[in-house]
Amino acid sequence: MIQVIWDLEDDPRGNVRHIAEHDVASNEVEEVLNDRHSQTVYSASSGRLITFGWTAAGRYLAVVWELVEEDPLVLYPVTAYPAPEPRQEK
Known about the structure:
Layout: E1 3-4, H1 15-20, H2 26-34, E2 39-42, E3 49-54, E4 60-69, E5 74-82
Parallel strand pairs: 1-5
Antiparallel strand pairs: 2-3, 3-4, 4-5
């Protein structure tokens, strides 16, 4: 299980508020980060790690994060937003 660091909800510059601005909840971020089927790559725009995955409610999200610690695995989500669904290969 991944440990996720969240700023205080009332922190105007914190990750909870920033993610909420994109209509994403912190529990959705944790679902994507903890799903073994989610895919992680480096963002071309920021150079940060970004994980794409599905929430339990069926939303496809992109979660941009920073590695805080490797063992145990601790992540700091920078932002998250709904992403276009991946194309199905035929």
